[in-house]
């Protein structure tokens, strides 16, 4: 029996946020289920998810992994779970409330209505919609998106967005096992593969807020991966090896 929507949230040390996030996501719509992919958080994030399962039952799912294996592999594992369980729409979002759960229905509605195959919650679709970022972080993010757009040709402003709804046919069509990126480059690669495969992308303007609890996962290695990965993707697309 097919199910409707699965929201995937990777976590690492999100104990301060996870209980409230679960509540808000699941309460958006009775057809929304939530999957937490936890990378062995030492702060007990997974234990809080298990407690919440007593309340939300089959709407809340948990995959526990052995350690900090990365954002990209967490989403790929979540995608496979969603496809195997028969969900029609599969969403990504962060655990830290930088993405507002109230925006989920807007993203899902775009895909359900057939307006796009991937609906992206965009920070840059209508100017810059980011609250509480230092100027240095804003310049880095905006420049990275200009760089990625220039090299790949992607027809979207927020190439690194991690808040989106994807029709299952996209994930079936691009073979998620081929995705090699693991940091923010993962989002660029996912968008690029979907676009190159002929699927349609649209951006829905959101307001992005800097996390109030926990610690950002940004690192120099994540930035460098994004810098070189876009060239690899472009070259692969030119030679038909994507």
What would your notes on this structure say?
By secondary structure, the chain is an alpha/beta fold. Helices cover 41% and strands 19% of the residues. The chain has a seven-stranded mixed β-sheet with strand order 3-2-1-4-7-5-8, with helices on both faces. It has a two-stranded parallel ribbon with strand order 6-9. α1 links the parallel β1 (3-11) and β2 (32-38). α1 (18-26) runs parallel beside α2 (45-56). The longest helix has 19 residues, at 220-238.
* Number of E-state strands: 9
- In angstroms, what separates the terminal alpha carbons? 33 Å
Shape: globular
Biggest sheet: strands, sense, closure?
Answer: 7 strands, mixed
Helix percent reads 40-55%
Going across the major beta sheet, what is the strand order? 3-2-1-4-7-5-8
SSE run: EHEHEHEHEEHEHHEEH
Mean of pLDDT: 93
SS-based structural class? alpha/beta
Figure out the total of helices: 8
Percentage of residues in strands:
15-25%
Poorly predicted regions are none
Gyration radius from CA atoms, angstroms: 17 Å
């Amino acid at each position: 029996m097919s199910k409707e929507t699965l929201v995937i949230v990777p976590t690492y040390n999100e104990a301060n946020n996870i209980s409230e996030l679960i509540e808000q996501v699941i309460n958006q719509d009775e057809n929304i289920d939530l999957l937490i992919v936890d990378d062995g958080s030492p702060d007990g994030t997974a234990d809080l998810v298990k407690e919440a399962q007593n309340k939300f039952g089959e709407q809340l799912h948990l995959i526990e992994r052995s350690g900090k294996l990365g954002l990209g592999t967490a989403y790929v594992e979540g995608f496979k779970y969603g496809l195997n369980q028969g969900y029609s729409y599969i969403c990504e979002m962060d655990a830290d409330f930088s993405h507002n759960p109230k925006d989920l229905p807007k993203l899902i509605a775009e895909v359900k209505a057939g307006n796009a195959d991937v609906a992206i919650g965009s920070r840059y679709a209508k100017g810059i919609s980011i609250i509480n970022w230092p100027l240095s972080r804003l310049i880095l993010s905006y420049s990275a998106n200009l760089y990625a757009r220039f090299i790949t040709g992607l027809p979207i402003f927020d190439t690194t967005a991690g808040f989106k709804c994807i029709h299952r046919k996209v994930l079936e069509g691009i073979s998620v096992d081929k995705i090699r990126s693991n940091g923010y480059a993962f989002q660029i690669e996912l968008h690029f593969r979907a676009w190159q495969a002929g699927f349609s992308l649209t951006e829905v303007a959101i307001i992005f807020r800097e996390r109030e609890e926990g610690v950002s996962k940004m690192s120099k290695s994540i930035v460098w991966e994004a810098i070189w990965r876009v060239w690899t993707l472009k070259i692969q697309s030119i030679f038909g090896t994507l």
